[in-house]
Amino acid sequence: MPKLITRQGRRTNPLIWMLAIVCAILATAVIITGIVVFVIYMVYKPKMPYIKVAYAQLNHLDYDPSGLLKIQMSLDVVAENDNNKARAGFSDLSFLLRFHGIDVAELRADPLDVAKNSSFELNYRFQSSPIPLDKKAMEAMEVALRRGVVPFDLDGHASTRWRAGLFLSVRFRTHLSCPLNFSARNGSAIDLDCSSKSR
């Protein structure tokens, strides 16, 4: 006579239950974090801090026909914080001035804090050591002097961070790269427009 045979259901391994619980917790944490970040963004509406060159002056240029270049220059670099509700910190500030690909001067600054909706000005007054130019750079300098416009290139970067309260902190990296053109006659900057701000 046929018999009905029943099987007991398999029990789920406790490790699988643990894994499911951990995944549920992580998913909940990600959702909560996303909500918190969105709320913070809507409240603070953060803007990326940036750096810009506010003033540049070629105070003196000494060029030897043998190819030695020596300059004195003034640069005012401004650290800008356009956030109305958060302070901004700037660190690892570094700028490199070049002529025709040749390093002329490297400028640095200590870490600094900028108040809400404010700025901090870095005033550089420096003199380079005599710098030997290669043949192409010598030709470029001679052409520049004949035309009356001496071109340099400025590259810079900074690590920035805006802070709200004691625990909330967001980090950015900002860069600038721009030409600095000077009148050979009086050393004034021509059409100065140098900033790391996104356009």
From TrEMBL:
Point out the signal peptide segment.
none
| One GO biological process term | defense response to other organism
Q: Which UniProt keywords apply?
A: Membrane, Transmembrane, Transmembrane helix
Q: Does the keyword Membrane apply?
A: yes
Where do transmembrane segments lie in this chain? 15-44
The residues forming a coiled coil are none
Among the entry's GO cellular component annotations, what is one?
Answer: plasma membrane
Q: Where in the cell is it found?
A: Membrane
InterPro entries named among the record's database cross-references: NDR1-like
- Name by which UniProt lists this protein: Late embryogenesis abundant protein LEA-2 subgroup domain-containing protein
* Organism the protein comes from: Musa balbisiana
